[in-house]
Write a structure and sequence with these properties.
This protein is an all-alpha fold. It is 67% helix and 0% strand. It is globular, with a radius of gyration of 23 Å. Its main location: membrane.
Length: 336
């Protein structure tokens, strides 16, 4: 909703400024004013365009480094990063509503937000992203507040991911010690945080192609699990019901947490090659990739394993894969 209001406000301001110039100035004056406006706008957003269709450069003289494929995976990790953490939707509302949610929500929520992000990132291709949008639409204070709130939100949100990885490592049996509170878990969380911080410090090009490699590695187990589970899928298992009332708050919070933050991709716009072309394509591909990466593994796991919905806690997808690999259809999940 905020992105929609922001885009309408920017469009209104642009239309008003253009109408005023057309009504008040002579043709030569309008041309000079437009040229000056373009120069100021380009310098303010940190970019210039080369003539002749060549690669774009920033005012600092460095070539834009992010192309289509790295941008797709950067968006993928900004928004999702795989079906990790989707289990609680099954716990809250059962398999059927979870599958419907991950089928509908990426398109009902993700497509409008990604379209607005693509349009504004192409119009304001600077590394400030949504902060630039808010600044131009509502003034510097709004830009500052949005940037600060978003920063605090992301710090809190990202802190959850390392703990989630530890849950998966512990639940899968790779590193059982990190599943429980203690020195091993704390060390693992701190180590992962430092490693990811170093990768980000290494530069956007390394981060982009690193995201591609990490995406392939993180998706490979789910592709394998889905392929192995297909012969065992029984659609009747998708109708399994939760005990008691459905927890709709947990269900929608899980969907929203796993399918939000499309606008964060805009903060890389200053590094994207030909953002007016690359951003819409990358966002369209990312919507399909994200929807498929949640929906297909969940369809396979819930359809192939006779596990009750209350077994679906964080990390249970690893248990489901293990149960399927050993031919068991009675996975009970970790203790809650």
């Amino acid at each position: 909703m905020f992105l929609y209001v922001l885009s309408k406000q920017l469009a209104s301001k642009l239309a008003m400024s253009q109408g005023f110039l057309l009504a008040a100035e002579q043709p030569s004056q309008r041309q000079e004013q437009q040229e000056l406006h373009d120069i100021v706008r380009q310098e303010h957003h940190g970019y210039t365009r080369q003539q002749g269709g060549g690669p774009t450069l920033s005012v600092y003289g460095h070539k834009r480094k992010i192309t289509l494929i790295p941008l797709v995976f950067l968006i993928y990790f900004e928004v999702a990063g795989g079906p990790y953490g989707a289990e609680k939707a099954v716990l809250a509302a059962g398999p059927l509503f979870t599958l419907l949610g991950f089928l509908v929500f990426p398109f009902a929520w993700g497509v409008p937000e990604s379209l607005i992000t693509a349009e504004l990132a192409a119009a304001f291709p600077g590394n400030g992203g949504f902060v630039l949008w808010a600044d131009h639409a509502f003034g510097p204070l709004a830009g500052f507040l949005l940037g600060m709130w978003k920063y605090l939100s992301i710090v809190i949100n990202i802190a959850a991911y390392t703990a989630l990885i530890a849950d998966y490592l512990g639940g899968s049996g790779v590193a059982p010690a990190v599943a429980q509170p203690g020195g091993a878990r704390t060390g693992a969380v701190i180590g992962m945080t430092l490693l990811l911080s170093f990768v980000n410090y290494a530069g956007v090009s390394i981060v982009g192609w690193g995201a591609v490699a990490l995406g392939m590695v993180s998706l490979a187990p789910f592709v394998l699990m889905t392929a192995m589970a297909v012969p065992k899928v029984r659609p009747s298992r998708w109708a399994s019901q939760v005990k008691g009332d459905k927890d709709w708050r947990l269900f929608f919070n899980t969907l929203f947490w796993n399918l939000n933050y499309w606008d964060c991709a805009s903060t890389m716009a200053g590094e994207v090659e030909r953002p007016e072309q690359t951003f819409p394509r990358a966002l369209a591909l990312a919507v399909v990739l994200i929807a498929g990466s949640y929906l297909l593994p969940l369809m396979a796991a819930t359809g192939a394993i006779d596990a009750p919905p209350d077994a679906w806690v964080n990390g249970y997808l690893a248990d489901a894969a293990s149960s399927g690999a050993h031919g068991s259809n009675t996975g009970q999940g970790p203790a809650q």
